[in-house]
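Long-time lurker. I teach an intro course on protein structure, and each term I like to show students one example going from raw sequence to a predicted 3D structure in token notation. This year I'd like something fresh instead of my usual example. Would anyone be willing to generate the tokens for the chain below so I can use it in lecture? Attribution to the forum is fine with me.
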Amino acid sequence: MFKGSKERTVAQLIDLNLQQLQAQVTAEQWTDLQTRRKHILERIEELPVDECSFARWLYRELTEEVRTFISSWLRENDADEMAPAVLRRFDRDCKNTRSENLIVKTTVVEFIKEGQREDPHARPLLQEIQSYPLDELREQLSDEERIDLSLRIQRIVG
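-- Reply from a regular --
Happy to contribute to a lecture. Here you go:
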């Protein structure tokens, strides 16, 4: 999450005029509002802060979304067409930022390797993944995320 956005969101949630809101809602709505506010503040604190102001996926969210898509795809379709299907589904994300591109393609190659099968799509994806210096992602990924992505890439390179 972009540093400025996180700070503003937290400040706005903390500065809510709770007394005024309590007078305008039912007891059930008040309880729900307090619960949601607390949950959002906790979740926001867990989000990594970065310097990239582009709207984009968070590292872990995108990784999980790609994995979920792949798992769903493999339940109903031929594994040989998985890589092109994922790349079509996440085409816009891959064009959005380099980090999103690498996350999607790394996750695809992980699934291919985990399935221990030959796939003609794996080699060009792997070559592209290996050719990009992760240090150039400093604005898009936190140090922790870059380290995790680097380890994932090392595992699939083997």
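Some talking points for your students: The two ends are 32 Å apart (CA to CA). Residues 22 and 29 are 9 Å apart (CA to CA).
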